[in-house]
Write a structure and sequence with these properties.
The complex is a heterodimer of chains A (160) and B (129). Chain A has one domain (8-159). The relative contact order of chain A is 0.02. The model of chain A has no long low-confidence stretch (mean pLDDT 91). Chain A contains two helices and no strands. Chain A is mainly alpha-helical. Chain B is an alpha+beta fold. Chain B is built from five helices and four strands, in the order H-H-H-E-H-E-E-E-H. In chain B, strand 3 and strand 4 (110-115) form a beta hairpin. The relative contact order of chain B is 0.12. The chains are: A mainly alpha (160), B alpha+beta (129).
Chain lengths: 160, 129
């Protein structure tokens, strides 16, 4: 050993030193660092897991929100359609009522016009007959001579 | 109590049949005076004719004309109405000067207007209808 230049005592001392150093380091350095690294790893895993769950929750919430929004849109559409239908029905009823009223007014006006026409015709007829009768009265009262009167009386007796 | 013209007429006819005409006439005038019914005299005379006709089963016919009808006219009316009514007539011709021409015949409540004025009125009614 000495021929190889190796000092056995020194080698042994170095081996002992190495062992002592290894024991000290493994007890006071490697173990805490390993433990710290394990804890760190566990924390990161947990963070990742939490993040994943949060993402899932967010997706679920978004999906739920979309669903609610769609339902709300559908309901709003339905309400709008019903409102339009009701408004159309009301408008149609109003138009019908207005038309009926207009028809009634027109009918009344026509009836009144025809009544007025009838009255005017009747009045005119009455006036005309009065004039004719007045003329006849005048002719009968003033123009007839005795011979004509006797002739008319004889005719009346024949008519009896 | 006021006596109706028809009652006067009935009493007069009955009295004239049985009693003295002068007494009956005197009593009649006194009664009219007492009851103040001179204004009913024309009605009483009208009733007298109709009552007399009724009691003798005859029909009273009044013919109104502007002038007195001649015998021919009266005869023609009498013949026509006797034939139509089937009874003997008492025919009076009353003069109504304002009736222009034609005749009006009154049989009880029925009036046949054949006057010129009546014809004009009928014509007027026809025009108005």
């Amino acid at each position: 050993m000495e021929a190889l230049g190796i000092d056995l005592k020194l080698l042994l001392a170095q081996i002992v030193n190495f062992i002592i150093l290894f024991v000290v380091l493994s007890k006071f350095l490697y173990k805490p660092i390993t433990k710290m690294l394990d804890e760190r790893e566990e924390k990161i895993c947990k963070g990742l897991k939490d993040s994943e769950e949060s993402t899932k929750c967010l997706e679920k919430a978004n999906s739920e929100s979309d669903k609610i929004k769609n339902e709300a849109y559908k309901e709003a559409d339905k309400i709008l359609v019903e409102a339009k239908k009701e408004a159309n029905e009301k408008a149609a009823a109003l138009v019908k009522k207005a038309n009926d009223q207009a028809d009634k007014i027109l009918k009344n006006a026509n009836e009144e016009a025809s009544l007025a026409k009838e009255r005017a015709l009747k009045e005119a007829k009455k006036e005309l007959s009065n004039v004719v009768v007045m003329a006849l009265d005048k002719i009968v009262g003033e123009e007839l001579d005795n011979s004509a009167k006797e002739k008319l009386t004889a005719q009346a007796i024949k008519e009896l | 109590m006021k006596i109706k013209p028809q009652q006067y007429a009935q009493v007069l006819i009955a009295g004239l049949k049985d009693g003295n005409a002068k007494d009956i006439a005197e009593k009649f005038w006194n009664k009219l005076q007492r009851n103040n019914q001179y204004k009913d005299l024309s009605k009483i005379l009208e009733c007298l004719d109709s009552e007399y006709a009724k009691q003798n089963n005859k029909i009273l016919v009044q013919v109104y004309s502007s002038k007195a009808l001649d015998e021919v006219g009266i005869k023609e009316i009498r013949e026509k109405l006797t034939k139509e009514l089937g009874k003997e007539l008492i025919l009076n011709n009353e003069i109504v000067p304002n009736q222009t021409a034609g005749i009006i015949v009154k049989i009880d409540d029925t009036e046949i207007d054949l006057s010129l004025k009546g014809k004009v009125n009928k014509f007027k009614q026809a025009l108005n209808n």
